[in-house]
Amino acid sequence: MRPVLQPDGRSMLIGSQPIDDHALAAQLVMAHVPEIPNWVQLPVFAQEGMISQFAPGLPGLTHGEERTYVDTAADGFDDQMVAFFEEFLAVVEERTPWDESRFALDRTYARGFFELLSALKARPEKPFAVKGQITGPITFCTSLTDERRRAIFYNEGLRDAAVKMLALKAAWQVRQLKAAGAPVILFIDEPALAGYGSSEFISISREDIAACLQEVIDMVHSLGAWAGVHVCANTDWSLLLSSELDIVNFDAFGYFDKFVLYAEPLKSFLHAGGCLAWGLVPTSPADIVQAATLEQVWARWQAGVQALAALGIDPMALRRQSFITPSCGTGSLPPELSQKVLEMTQALSARVRNS
After folding, report:
1. Angle between helices 156-177 and 77-92 (to 10 degrees)
2. In this structure, what is the dihedral angle of CA atoms 196, 138, 191, 328, given to the nearest 10 degrees?
3. What contacts 205, CB < 8 A, 6 or more positions away?
4. CB 151 within 8 Å of CB 142
5. b/e per residue 37-71 (b: at least 16 CB within 10 A)
6. For 122, what's the count of Cα atoms within 13 Å in the CB-facing half-sphere?
7. Distance, CA of 103 to CA of 259 (rounded, Å)
8. Is the pTM of this model over 0.90?
9. Which helix (H) or strand (E) holds 277?
10. Any idea what DSSP says for residue 155?
11. Which among 89, 312, 331, 335 could bridge 16 via Cys, Cβ 3.0 to 4.6 Å?
């Protein structure tokens, strides 16, 4: 049974930082979001890209000179698929140890995760929660392609394997993070959903998207953790607000006016106990980040609360069910602006909590 989630304006980060030192990244997390620490992805390392970080273990994965892809035409591909699903069942049924399976994260690809575990062991106090993250199944399956450069989303067998792999890699994180003795939040990062409703997604149904997300959500919930989603631009928010997600993270700096259009599903989501993670601190472009001030983002929080109050949402209940975050990760920013984002997120959260 998951406890009631009431973040009450606490701050949380999205994931990436623009540095090349994992230990320093973990220190920055502990300094700026000590109540909900997360592990950090450093995109300066090629193996920590959104797709490459979680792709190991997928049948047919091939690293070519120009790109990484799934070679469905390779000799033995069908045998690899059979072995994958056999291992999936063996892990789920606890016949194979999780840590010895392909579903455990590898230090080569996720060093930040292990730095977080070390940092959690070194701190005496228990945090409010700890945060893991996984690339979402829609982003993963529409970005990774086969030997013909066709997205693996359109291969039902491969899509099924990819979704199950991501679900178990999410579950493995939850099992590891529970050692901190605090509730676990597992975020599903879905930047590709910003394209939902466009011609790029015209052949992908709402039902297929919902089913892929639900499989990951169900696995996270089965271990007593909370499931959140992060989309760093606009999307059809009704799809996410009507799901079984616990947290919806949106870019409140750039797209609040679009988000608030989904009034009815938003009210239903909050009434059912769902939480909003307000991405109020901008992370792009760099000149906007440079010019941003605490007073500016505080004013946007106040205006947002007023707009939702006009829909009939109680401001105090809204604060109890809200996190404060940057609008996205800071991996594409210069280090000094990334530092500014972390500091401003922490300061805005303090102001919200003290208001």
Report:
1. 40
2. 140
3. none
4. yes
5. bbbbbbbebeebbbebbbbbbbbbeeeeeeeebbb
6. 12
7. 35
8. yes
9. strand 275-281
10. S
11. 331
